[in-house]
Write a structure and sequence with these properties.
Blueprint lengths: L6 E3 L4 H10 L3 E4 L5 H6 L7 E4 L9 E3 L3 E5 L4 H5 L2 H6 L1 H7 L5 H6 L2 H7 L5 H8 L3 E6 L2 E6 L4 E3 L2 E2 L6 E8 L5 E8 L9 E9 L5 E9 L6 E2 L1 H7 L6 H12 L11 H24 L3
Parallel strand pairs: 1-3, 2-3
Antiparallel strand pairs: 4-5, 5-10, 6-7, 6-10, 8-9, 11-12, 12-13, 13-14
Length: 289
């Protein structure tokens, strides 16, 4: 199929893009196009106007900050994957990117596009949840900042207003003594995940867990955080019983399913992958204390 007719716009400045988005009827923003273009071709989306952000250079780039790393929303996944700054300050993001499609799609796909599309099986929203990323959102009336966990509003739906654009994502620097792990199960390499899990564990000098973060994708419309399990691990020495309790908590999360991957199967995978990710993260953390 071919897309329904639309008018194409290619602004060079963010202010111009925001003005177009605020004034044009039924407009959609185009980032890397890895999700929107197939939706246009299948006529799952039929906007009257497409606003291509490819020339808005201010929206791309990776900057080291006092708190961690700041990434422009139009930064390609491949640029992030190859960044030594991100590898040093946010290695969980690098590990997750290895599971995102093929290199050809990562060459075009952007971090902002992935977060805004909010596919339930996407890897980058799970990492953004696990790392408590902050999002900067702009309209022609100004900017606002929210935590990623405030961003989802439903299936493939975010809290972005029709006249708003995601401009940047801030990730905190991984603390010293931390281990990380990203585990995913998919039918084939580069397929959408059935379930994926992102974990960050920080180990103190006394070998106790200072803090833990666990996020799971593939169970519902948005990533789920295991806050109760995180609290169970924090402040205690690492032991199999507590890790097992965290894995069991993952199996009790609300979960949807389909004919290929029913809810019971996804729940089982959530438990298995959570335990696997926690053990891997802890082993990495022990070597960095």
């Amino acid at each position: 199929m071919k897309p329904a007719p639309f008018t194409y716009h290619r602004p060079g400045r963010l202010e111009e893009a925001l003005e177009l988005l605020a004034t044009l009827p039924n407009a959609r923003v185009l980032a890397g196009g890895q999700s929107l273009l197939p939706m246009l071709n299948l006529r799952m989306a039929t906007p009257e106007h497409i606003i291509d952000l490819g020339r808005v250079s201010a929206l791309a780039g990776i900057t080291e900050t006092a708190e961690g790393i700041s990434i422009g929303a139009m930064t390609t996944q491949r640029a992030i994957e190859r960044s030594e700054s991100v590898r040093a300050r946010c290695p969980l993001l690098i590990e997750a990117l290895a599971h995102v499609g093929h290199q050809a799609t990562r060459n075009r796909g952007t971090i902002g596009g992935s977060l805004c599309h909010l596919d339930p099986a996407a890897e980058l929203p799970v990492v953004a949840s696990a790392l408590d990323a902050r999002l900067t959102i702009a309209s022609r009336n100004g900017q606002r900042s929210i935590r990623f966990d405030e961003f989802p509003a439903g299936y493939l739906t975010t809290q972005l207003a029709p006249d708003e654009i995601l401009t940047g994502i801030d990730f905190p620097q991984t603390p010293a003594g931390s281990g990380w792990a990203f585990e995913e199960f998919s039918q084939r390499a580069a397929d959408f995940a059935v379930v994926c899990v992102a974990v960050l564990v920080t180990i103190g000098s006394d070998a106790r867990v200072r803090q833990a973060s666990i996020a799971i994708g593939g169970l519902g419309p948005a990533p789920a955080r295991l806050h109760d399990a995180e609290s169970t691990l924090a402040g205690h020495a690492w032991d199999a019983e507590r890790v097992g309790s965290a894995a069991q908590a993952a199996t009790r999360l609300p979960c949807g399913g389909d004919e290929v991957n029913p809810a019971e199967y996804r729940s089982h995978l959530a438990g298995v992958l959570t335990r696997r990710a926690l053990d891997k993260a802890y082993e990495r953390g022990r070597t960095r204390v």
